[in-house]
Design goal:
423 residues, mainly alpha, globular
Length: 423
């Protein structure tokens, strides 16, 4: 039986399935920890910010581990990397269920942050396995993220009511065991037997060369630092950093913002669920729009919608309109989902397959840094002003600024094309 595997068919859709599962477990699990925050605060008799810091550190460790995940994927294989990081994630949840102090819980939740690196490796593998049907594949993966955000928080609340927070942590560990299976399903793309032999020879030669090179040279290779010489890739990094800042700020402060307006807690939290529907709608509409619309056009239009939605929030809030806030939440997350998918597609266009895993990992690093900084600065803005109005206006401005590097790159390309045309 031939071992040859082709892009866009066969095993490629198994890779899509692994991405769907990992994307659903990632943000869904993080939101589940948010649901458990009041119970954990009461259990350990501590303040909200302490438990919140413990949960947010999972994102921080994810940012730190992403470059190592890329290096390990090159040194070992993506399969071994994802399985190793997934095992550490499961161990983290098991340890959390046994926690007797906040410090122990913090260390345990740090381990769960390795899931971020595992998810990014799978995203990179998905980009390698697809060309023609990549739009459909990433849309399916995005649908997994939407379903995870919508299903896992209420499911976590139900499990907590039945089994308590320790039992819920164990069940989350069980759910994340599926990550190990996802890792085991990753296969190297094999297109041609002759090409495979050439690749094996190249890898052996490259390994001998790396053993003779300096530490800095090896770091450049394993982390694919040469990506940072590509202006378009850098523009996408800046975009995802700003996007991560805006989305995290919106996600964290949406509920307290609407509660400050006088809405009930369940009404406020339901706005995030409406946002999840918007993200699911983005996954459905994106492949359809791609038939007649370029990725950069989608990116520009979606960004303008994001700026519009965040900028209108203070006006709608002044009227205390729940329907208006629900509409803004839906179109904001829908447009944000469109930009995420467009960024993945643009990165795939500008990055070679052998650098794709690290490219996706660096995208996740930028997104994580933006998210971590937003958690602090958006809250600090509220503490200073006593209102979320300025916070949302700043988010609107930052979302528009995110386009500036890409706009400069595009204008530079237009200028060059006109210059060559005039010769």
């Amino acid at each position: 039986m031939s071992n040859v595997m082709a892009k866009d068919r066969g095993w490629a859709w198994i890779i899509t399935l692994t991405s769907f599962i990992s994307m659903g477990l990632g943000p869904g699990t993080m939101k589940s920890l948010g649901v458990m925050l009041p119970t954990l605060r009461q259990q350990f008799s501590t303040q909200t910010w302490v438990i919140g810091l413990s949960i947010s550190l999972t994102t921080a460790i994810g940012v730190v581990t992403c470059p190592f995940a890329g290096a390990l994927s090159k040194r070992l294989t993506p399969r071994h990397t994802v399985m190793t990081f997934s095992i550490l994630t499961v161990i983290g949840f098991i340890m959390a269920s046994l926690a007797t102090s906040v410090e122990f819980l913090m260390v345990a939740l740090l381990l769960t942050g390795f899931s971020v690196g595992a998810d990014a490796v799978i995203t990179g593998e998905e980009a390698i396995w697809f060309d023609k049907y990549y739009n459909i594949s990433i849309a399916i993966s995005q649908a997994g993220l939407s379903l995870g955000i919508m299903i896992m928080p209420p499911m976590t609340q139900l499990l907590q009511d039945i089994y308590g927070w320790r039992g819920t942590m164990l069940l989350l560990a069980g759910l994340n065991l599926h990550r190990i299976v996802c890792g085991a399903l990753l296969q190297p793309l094999q297109t041609d037997p002759v090409e495979l032999e050439d690749k094996d020879f190249f890898k052996r030669s490259r390994k001998r060369q790396l053993q003779e090179n300096s530490v800095i040279t090896n770091l450049v290779h394993y982390l694919d630092l040469s990506l940072f010489t590509d202006a378009e890739f850098i523009s996408m990094l800046v975009y995802r950093l700003c996007s991560g800042y805006c989305f995290t700020g919106w996600l964290i402060y949406l509920v307290p913002h609407t509660m400050e307006l006088g809405f009930q807690p369940y009404e406020s939290s339901f706005l995030a669920t409406i946002g999840g529907f918007g993200n699911l709608l983005a996954a459905i509409l994106y492949p359809i729009l791609k038939i007649c619309t370029p990725d950069k056009t989608i990116l520009y239009l979606a960004t303008f919608i994001i700026t519009f939605a965040l900028g209108l929030d203070p006006l709608v809030s002044s009227y205390h309109s729940y329907i208006g806030l629900a509409f803004l939440s839906c179109i904001y997350v829908l447009a944000t989902g469109m930009t995420w998918l467009s960024v993945y597609k643009i990165v795939k266009h500008v990055v070679e397959d052998d650098k794709m895993t690290n490219a996706m990992l660096w995208i996740n690093v930028a997104d994580g840094i933006g998210g971590i900084s937003s958690g602090f600065f958006s809250g600090w803005t509220f503490d200073v002003t006593g209102s979320y109005t300025l916070s949302f206006m700043l988010l609107s401005a930052i979302s528009l600024f995110a386009l500036c590097p890409q706009f400069i790159v595009d204008m530079r390309g237009v200028w060059k094309s006109r210059k060559y045309a005039s010769l």
